[in-house]
Write a structure and sequence with these properties.
This protein has 343 residues and is α/β, with parallel strands linked by helices. The protein has helices at residues 9-22, 39-49, 59-65, 99-103, 128-134, 157-170, 185-194, 206-210, 269-283, and strands at residues 3-7, 27-28, 53-56, 72-75, 92-96, 109-113, 139-146, 177-181, 199-204, 216-228, 233-234, 239-240, 245-251, 288-293, 296-300, 308-314, 325-328, 339-342. The strands form 3 sheets. Strands 2-9-8-7-6-5-4-3 form an 8-stranded parallel beta sheet. The protein has a 6-stranded antiparallel beta barrel with strand order 10-13-16-15-14-17. A two-stranded antiparallel sheet has the order 11-12. Strand 7, helix 6 and strand 8 form a beta-alpha-beta unit. The longest helix has 15 residues, at 269-283. It is elongated.
Length: 343
Amino acid sequence: MALTLYVDTARWRAHQQSVIQQFPGIIPVCKGNGYGFSNERLAEEVTRMGADTLAVGTTYEAARIKDFFSGDLLVLTPFRLGEEPVPLPDRVIRSVSSVEGVRGLVGARVVIEVMSSMKRHGISEEDLPKLHAAIEDVRLEGFAIHLPLDHADGSGGVDEVTGWMERLRNAHLPLHTMFVSHLKAEELRELQQRFPQTRFRARIGTRLWLGDHDATQYRGAVLDVTPVAKGDRFGYRQQKAPGDGYLVVVAGGTSHGVGLEAPKALHGMMPRAKGVARAGLATMNRNLSPFVWAGKQRWFAEPPHMQVSILFVPNDAPAPQVGDELVAHLRHTTTQFDRVVDH
């Protein structure tokens, strides 16, 4: 009995192909938990696509994935002086976000990240004159810019990339390749038209792997069903059942990522009101689970355990049976499945 990721493989790959067609020269991103699929599985998919480069998050991920992909590996986390050395093949390309970092990678293949409005990391405009001497000692693969998802000032990604292209050109730095993130297909085409001598390569992860929500589904198997009456005590803390119904034990707990959630940025009054309501319910030990039964998302009976969750299903709904599977609305990037089923 398991928490299973079901993949409509043909549909999933059809979506991948649609993204590849929109972004010529795409660099697929495989990092973290592999967007819920595992990096090893995604490396196999990238090989199937015929992509020449795969982007990973860290040097540790590059070391683990190098035997699953034979092309170039682009490490997105910038190099830092004094970082722990990880043995990597020559086909690994390092991102760098400082002049000192470039100087510390003599002989290496590098991509230099520029500071975007994300303000996360990158070379500043003031540092550009210092790069001339530094890049003579490395194999420069190009420059890169990581854009925000939203531009609050009403501008777009094209404007920000264009601004940096002009700064780099004015500094007389090589502009043969620019690696970009979070651009729309039409924005990429516009940039390519504006700068025909530069090759723009989009680094894409979420849109490529998770863009078709209906191609994948998590389901947790029902392990046990126990009838309870209102007031019956149960669980680790011996709480009282809120009414007549069933305690349903389903595969999927904290070790799978169930009950764990990354903070979200809320925009608008309605999402904020819902957030306040959820917080108020949580203080009363009422937490909505990701599991769905009989058309409704069901409440946790108590906080999820390591490998299972216990749900409360009221008796106005049909009782699940052992072996049934409950659809689970889980975030791919924080979920670890027991098994994957392609169909």
